[in-house]
Amino acid sequence: METATAEQEIETFINSWGDGNSSVKSGFLELYRHARAMAGVKFHFVGRSGVSYSLRPRGSRQREGEFFAIIDVIDDDPQARWLSVCFYGDMITDPEGRGEVIPGGLAGADGYCFDVTGDEAGAIDYLKERCREAWVRIS
After folding, report:
1. Looking at the DSSP assignment, which residues form a beta bridge with residue 114?
2. How far apart are CA 70 and CA 79, in angstroms?
3. Which pLDDT score is estimated for 32?
4. What Å distances lie between residue 121 and 27, 28, 113, 124, 127, CA to CA?
5. 111-123, pLDDT tens digit by residue?
6. pTM of the predicted protein model
7. Calpha distance 84→82 (Å, rounded)
8. Phi, psi angle pair for 42, to nearest 5°
């Protein structure tokens, strides 16, 4: 899916998000805007109502299907959405040990996943730094 189409779908999703989970919505917006500001980033977006809405940024030198982050809004309860943000293990560090190590869990590769359920202090800034770190590794 082309970035322009993906961005339209992302904006439609954001605009349809109700008032619930404002801190999670704000965190998703911050991560989306952060990735969008990176040079050469393209987006893939997969929306599955009742399951998840998945934002997948890709660097210009990555092949189709490769992503430097997977930013999921988990939608099993639309009134209590939360974020699951994952990275391939060789693309980031986790100096504060906030992530959960996922052995072989990202298309057969090791990864880290970070869950954000509310307004955890510094969580989004920490994830923005991990996004930047992953983007630098693939740039």
Report:
1. 85
2. 22
3. 97
4. 11, 15, 17, 8, 12
5. 999 999 988 889 9
6. 0.93
7. 7
8. -115, 155
